[in-house]
Amino acid sequence: MPLKIVVMRAVLFLLFAGAGLWMTRLAVLAMKRRLDWKRDGVSIEGEVVGFEERASTDTSDQRPRFAPIVAFRVAGGDARRFTSATAVRPNPWVLGQKVPVRYMGTDPNDVDLEEVTRGLLPILALMTLAIVFLGVSLLPIFMPAPTPR
Asked: How does pLDDT run across 67-86, given as a tens digit for each residue?
Protein backbone atom coordinates (compact mmCIF):
# COMPACT_ATOMS: atom_id res chain seq x y z
CA MET A 1 0.00 0.00 0.00
CA PRO A 2 1.46 3.43 -0.92
CA LEU A 3 2.75 5.59 1.92
CA LYS A 4 0.31 8.39 1.04
CA ILE A 5 -2.69 6.12 1.65
CA VAL A 6 -1.21 4.77 4.90
CA VAL A 7 -0.66 8.32 6.18
CA MET A 8 -4.20 9.40 5.19
CA ARG A 9 -5.68 6.37 6.94
CA ALA A 10 -3.61 7.05 10.06
CA VAL A 11 -4.69 10.70 10.13
CA LEU A 12 -8.37 9.76 9.70
CA PHE A 13 -8.06 7.15 12.43
CA LEU A 14 -6.43 9.62 14.83
CA LEU A 15 -8.94 12.40 14.12
CA PHE A 16 -12.04 10.26 14.55
CA ALA A 17 -10.63 8.25 17.47
CA GLY A 18 -9.66 11.50 19.21
CA ALA A 19 -13.14 12.94 18.70
CA GLY A 20 -14.71 9.68 19.92
CA LEU A 21 -12.57 9.61 23.04
CA TRP A 22 -13.35 13.28 23.72
CA MET A 23 -17.10 12.58 23.42
CA THR A 24 -16.69 9.56 25.70
CA ARG A 25 -14.97 11.77 28.28
CA LEU A 26 -17.77 14.35 28.08
CA ALA A 27 -20.41 11.61 28.46
CA VAL A 28 -18.64 10.24 31.56
CA LEU A 29 -18.45 13.74 33.06
CA ALA A 30 -22.16 14.29 32.32
CA MET A 31 -23.03 10.96 33.98
CA LYS A 32 -20.91 11.90 37.01
CA ARG A 33 -22.67 15.26 37.22
CA ARG A 34 -26.08 13.56 37.07
CA LEU A 35 -25.05 11.11 39.81
CA ASP A 36 -23.86 14.04 41.94
CA TRP A 37 -27.27 15.68 41.48
CA LYS A 38 -29.00 12.46 42.57
CA ARG A 39 -26.68 11.82 45.53
CA ASP A 40 -26.07 15.32 46.92
CA GLY A 41 -29.02 17.24 45.51
CA VAL A 42 -31.81 18.53 47.71
CA SER A 43 -35.24 18.54 46.09
CA ILE A 44 -37.67 21.29 47.11
CA GLU A 45 -40.53 23.28 45.64
CA GLY A 46 -39.95 26.65 44.03
CA GLU A 47 -42.22 29.25 42.50
CA VAL A 48 -41.95 30.85 39.06
CA VAL A 49 -41.62 34.61 39.65
CA GLY A 50 -40.62 35.81 36.21
CA PHE A 51 -39.15 34.98 32.82
CA GLU A 52 -35.95 35.75 31.00
CA GLU A 53 -36.18 36.10 27.22
CA ARG A 54 -33.40 34.46 25.26
CA ALA A 55 -32.71 34.87 21.57
CA SER A 56 -33.12 31.80 19.41
CA THR A 57 -29.94 30.18 18.13
CA ASP A 58 -31.67 29.77 14.75
CA THR A 59 -30.99 32.96 12.77
CA SER A 60 -34.05 32.44 10.58
CA ASP A 61 -36.33 32.28 13.64
CA GLN A 62 -36.42 35.54 15.58
CA ARG A 63 -39.01 34.44 18.17
CA PRO A 64 -37.59 34.43 21.72
CA ARG A 65 -37.41 31.47 24.04
CA PHE A 66 -38.28 31.78 27.73
CA ALA A 67 -36.39 30.60 30.80
CA PRO A 68 -38.21 30.68 34.14
CA ILE A 69 -36.89 32.72 37.04
CA VAL A 70 -37.64 30.68 40.14
CA ALA A 71 -37.66 31.68 43.81
CA PHE A 72 -37.08 29.04 46.51
CA ARG A 73 -35.93 28.61 50.09
CA VAL A 74 -32.96 26.48 51.07
CA ALA A 75 -33.13 24.16 54.08
CA GLY A 76 -31.74 26.92 56.34
CA GLY A 77 -34.55 29.26 55.32
CA ASP A 78 -32.58 31.62 53.05
CA ALA A 79 -34.63 32.87 50.10
CA ARG A 80 -32.90 32.56 46.73
CA ARG A 81 -33.63 33.03 43.04
CA PHE A 82 -32.19 31.51 39.91
CA THR A 83 -32.82 31.50 36.19
CA SER A 84 -33.09 28.03 34.72
CA ALA A 85 -30.64 26.82 32.09
CA THR A 86 -33.66 25.61 30.11
CA ALA A 87 -35.30 28.07 27.74
CA VAL A 88 -38.18 26.92 25.53
CA ARG A 89 -40.88 28.17 23.24
CA PRO A 90 -43.79 28.25 23.69
CA ASN A 91 -43.53 29.17 27.35
CA PRO A 92 -45.01 26.26 29.39
CA TRP A 93 -44.76 28.05 32.75
CA VAL A 94 -47.04 30.65 34.34
CA LEU A 95 -46.30 33.19 37.06
CA GLY A 96 -46.89 31.72 40.51
CA GLN A 97 -46.60 28.12 39.26
CA LYS A 98 -45.01 25.70 41.73
CA VAL A 99 -42.11 23.77 40.18
CA PRO A 100 -39.77 21.12 41.58
CA VAL A 101 -36.25 22.48 42.11
CA ARG A 102 -33.02 20.70 42.99
CA TYR A 103 -29.94 22.34 44.48
CA MET A 104 -26.66 20.86 45.61
CA GLY A 105 -26.56 20.45 49.37
CA THR A 106 -22.96 21.65 49.42
CA ASP A 107 -23.64 24.72 47.25
CA PRO A 108 -27.16 26.20 47.15
CA ASN A 109 -26.05 28.43 44.24
CA ASP A 110 -25.76 25.30 42.09
CA VAL A 111 -29.46 24.93 41.32
CA ASP A 112 -31.85 24.18 38.48
CA LEU A 113 -35.26 22.73 37.74
CA GLU A 114 -35.63 19.09 38.73
CA GLU A 115 -36.36 18.09 35.12
CA VAL A 116 -33.03 19.59 33.99
CA THR A 117 -30.99 17.79 36.66
CA ARG A 118 -32.60 14.43 35.85
CA GLY A 119 -32.22 14.74 32.08
CA LEU A 120 -30.63 11.86 30.17
CA LEU A 121 -30.69 13.45 26.72
CA PRO A 122 -27.23 15.09 26.92
CA ILE A 123 -25.69 11.81 28.10
CA LEU A 124 -27.41 9.79 25.38
CA ALA A 125 -26.43 12.29 22.70
CA LEU A 126 -22.78 12.28 23.80
CA MET A 127 -22.69 8.48 23.99
CA THR A 128 -24.21 8.19 20.51
CA LEU A 129 -21.66 10.61 19.08
CA ALA A 130 -18.84 8.74 20.83
CA ILE A 131 -19.96 5.42 19.34
CA VAL A 132 -20.29 6.92 15.86
CA PHE A 133 -16.89 8.61 15.96
CA LEU A 134 -15.17 5.53 17.38
CA GLY A 135 -16.88 3.33 14.79
CA VAL A 136 -15.82 5.59 11.93
CA SER A 137 -12.27 5.66 13.31
CA LEU A 138 -12.07 1.88 12.79
CA LEU A 139 -12.99 2.08 9.09
CA PRO A 140 -9.46 2.91 7.90
CA ILE A 141 -8.16 -0.12 9.78
CA PHE A 142 -10.66 -2.69 8.47
CA MET A 143 -11.36 -1.36 4.97
CA PRO A 144 -9.46 -3.14 2.22
CA ALA A 145 -6.76 -1.26 0.39
CA PRO A 146 -7.87 0.38 -2.84
CA THR A 147 -7.09 -1.59 -5.97
CA PRO A 148 -4.71 0.07 -8.44
CA ARG A 149 -6.19 1.12 -11.77
From this structure: 999 999 988 778 999 999 88
